[in-house]
Amino acid sequence: MKKILLSLIGLLLFLQAGAQQYQNFKVSIYTRAYEVEKMKDSHWLDSTWRVISEQVQPDKIYLETHRDLLIVPDATLSKAIRFFKEKGLEIGGGITYTIDESNSFETFCYTNPEHRKKVQEIAEYTARYFDDFILDDFFFTSCKCSLCVEAKGDMSWTEYRLKLMTEAGKSLVLGPARKVNPGSLLGTTLAKLPELQYFQIPGQPSFRIQFRRMGRQRRFPYGHVPLCRTTLANLVCQSS
Ligand SMILES: [Zn+2]
């Protein structure tokens, strides 16, 4: 499977087999909640879409609903979905389960009842809009709060976090999403880098609960073999 990743400012663009616009691959864009939230501004949305669509012809767009406690409001999400459907794109959702990405990737505490409630609400909110959605890389925990220390008991941190995150993935994300939308499919971008499966990510359960693999993805350093450069694009891709 060929895979290309193109990152604009906050936009990930990757390719999968199964062509529509292109013969040998399908182009999907992943947009962070920060950019989806900006889509309330019609001018920003129109001009950004123009820049992108002049250079590639996407088949699908994933609209992230949450990142860093920013939840994209209903009205903005609905507007964005309408806009891209009118452009003929398939629509999917996305969630990044971070509290504050800039604070060393601070994630939710999956032992804390308040955090767990928020995690579930985000999954349910997203499933209302999308039949499939991606969990971005950050579905893990490195929390060592007093609740986690107590709940861990005699287990090692690895044992505890794997158990905790596997349970959280099923009972806070997948289960509630499917109650709202029985057809919900989850994918994870964790699998985008083949090497990632060998990384020591605390409590990363993606493979254990068998999220749908969205295909491979590669990133390239900024300025590497640019295929296109625009006022928005500062990182461009190449085919793998
Ligand atoms: Zn904790």
Runs with pLDDT <50, length 5+? 1-10, 190-240
Provide the domain count: 1
Mean pLDDT equals 75
Quaternary organization: single chain
What does this protein structure show overall?
- The protein has 240 residues and is an alpha/beta fold.
- It has one domain.
- It has 6 helices and 11 strands.
- The strands form 2 sheets. Strands 1, 2, 3, 4, 5, 6, 9, 10 and 11 form a 9-stranded mixed sheet that branches.
- A hairpin with a 2-residue loop joins strand 4 and strand 5.
- The longest helix has 24 residues.
- It is elongated, with a radius of gyration of 18 Å.
- The protein starts with a strand and ends in a 27-residue tail after the last strand.
- It binds zinc ion (ZN).
Give the helices and strands, then pairings:
Blueprint: E1 5-7, E2 11-16, E3 26-31, H1 33-38, H2 42-53, E4 60-67, E5 70-71, H3 74-86, E6 90-95, E7 98-100, E8 106-107, H4 113-129, E9 132-135, H5 146-152, H6 157-180, E10 185-188, E11 212-213
Helix pairs in contact: 4-6
Zinc ion is lined by residues 109, 111-112, 143, 145, 147-148.
Jot down its keywords.
disordered N terminus, two-stranded antiparallel sheet, 11 strands, 6 helices, 33% helix
Quick recap:
By secondary structure, the protein is an alpha/beta fold. 33% of the residues lie in helices and 19% in strands. The protein contains six helices and eleven strands.
